[in-house]
Write a structure and sequence with these properties.
about 240 residues, alpha/beta, Rossmann fold, seven-stranded parallel β-sheet, 7 strands
Amino acid sequence: MADLSGLTALITGAGGGIGAAMAETFAAAGARLALVDIVDCGGLAARLGEGHRSDLLDLLDPEAIARTVAAIGRDRGIDILINNAGLGIVAPAEEQSVADWDRTHAINLRAPWLTAVAALPFLKASGRGRVVNIASQAAVIAIAEHAAYGSSKAGLIGLTKVLALEWARHGITVNAISPTVVETPMALVGWSGEKGVRMRQEIPVGRFARPGEIAAAALYLASEAAGIVNGENLMADGGYSIR
């Protein structure tokens, strides 16, 4: 579907289930990978072949974001940025701590902004830059106990639209993907038992998303075929949000 040969894709949160699927999908399409996470992704980078790099990065640290992204850009350029890293701390709105609220917004909203801004000089130099932000169905549909998470992801969609408007003149497109629950080990812990059964029943297709499906959507948005798609939020939720 896409040939990314000669292009560099920077993927945050590459150590998680969706991030690893992204890495595998983009590597198969020929991209050079810059895998970024707070955990070591060196093994994943090595498994996917030569020419990939892995960087440790705490997305709560603005200076570290600027420093790491600049180092990646100087080393190999940045043609594609996938802001995939996210944090989901759920609680009733009146029980959410200020610390958890701030940490959720720092990871889910501030970090994608800072990462995109740090990558901008390299995306401009690419001439066909792509930014894909991973948002959530919780950004557009109210889900109980998701006040912090949902508001951070709604903000990410708003950021996506503004960057799409401002950066299009540089040949850069900026889009978002909003998945339903994705079948990763971490998500399945939170959506286990009766809670998971009820959620699946509310999704018209009757199941959660697979990591590879989200990776395939990101690959499309990063491809030449999606050059006219800009400022969009692709709902990958099995129809949950149409009900």
